[in-house]
């Protein structure tokens, strides 16, 4: 069985109240997922080492949900708990963060998946593995289908993240084949929305922060490179539908609407009514030129299509940033700022 195929398992599931472990649950996607699970009545155990996330945002959930537990833990070390489902979202996802300590990034992807798959095997729990569009590297085809094996430089500066996620996928499929662990491997494309860290170095947060501050909008390259941006609520819908399906994956999760980086910059300037100018800087090596998911499989097996259009999602995200208390967030150090790739 090939990991490039969308594989169907013999497992079916119906929604019931569950005890759920969310690794990396204090991060951007993780917090939205935790809240959605809590709103359905599930008991949620959130584990995070708070390297890229903010503890104060997760603590707010404790105040509103008695069935939420927050644990500081690094999943490069084993964890023991009794749960029905596991979501592995633990890994820095922005180049600014994952290039800060590339060896640690690789260990989180590999050891984190290994430990959580071992836990899932022992508990006979279902596990969602958050993979990434980065496994396709700088793709030679567009849109990217799940069958595309990628175009990745395993020695490049992004490889710590790209290859870490690829080996995590391999582990998932080997645990499925060898031990029957019910895995769900989702390849997540660029995601944005309220809850983003203002200094995470991603293109949407960078552009919005620069526009709101009246600073130049920094575009790397000529801006013709493309990305596809999925609103966070749409993504969480896709993840939950995927987890409740009988499909193992890998499965693309994102929005297939493609736009250039310079078009995104112009849209942010217009929506913020900012005096900012757009300036251009050299494009870093290994920065993908195109990134767009083929969602044929997701539409067919999940009956899922993102519904929030980019302008609507940006308006909500900009409002979130306008109201943000920036004193609660830490700016990256100079070493954190080494990467300028536009993810």
UniProtKB/TrEMBL annotation:
BP GO annotations: D-xylose metabolic process; UDP-D-xylose biosynthetic process
UniProt keyword 4Fe-4S, yes or no: no
Catalytic reactions on record: UDP-alpha-D-glucuronate + H(+) = UDP-alpha-D-xylose + CO2
Entry-linked Gene3D superfamilies: NAD(P)-binding Rossmann-like Domain
Cofactor: NAD(+)
Family: Belongs to the NAD(P)-dependent epimerase/dehydratase family. UDP-glucuronic acid decarboxylase subfamily.
Protein name: UDP-glucuronate decarboxylase
